Amino acid sequence: MLVTFKCHAAPDVTMLENLAHYLLGIIGKRLEPRGVITHDELDAAITKLEEAIVSDKKERAEHEGHFHETEDDHAHHEVPVGLAQRAFPFLDMLRAARTEQNDIVWGI
């Protein structure tokens, strides 16, 4: 299932339900059929998501040598996508909404 986040300050962001559930969990929200991130919640949400991205990057750097050409299940160029890449459109929307003091909604 797809979830589309909407905000007047940014283009719609559509993602798979499992990613939406994960990202909303990071910022302290639940994926309900309908929901809102109010402009008052944006500072905390952005901070939490940015901290999670920094943590993910640190963990990935510590395990950087894990993916070698000699492994059977991954070629050297098949490093899994990190949180920074997966969360960027959503984080960009959060920042735009904060700038314009807009809410973000889904399920409408």
Automatic annotation (TrEMBL):
InterPro entries recorded: DUF1840
A Pfam family it matches: DUF1840
Full protein name: DUF1840 domain-containing protein
Species per Swiss-Prot/TrEMBL record: Paraburkholderia denitrificans
Lineage, opening ranks: Bacteria, Pseudomonadati, Pseudomonadota, Betaproteobacteria, Burkholderiales
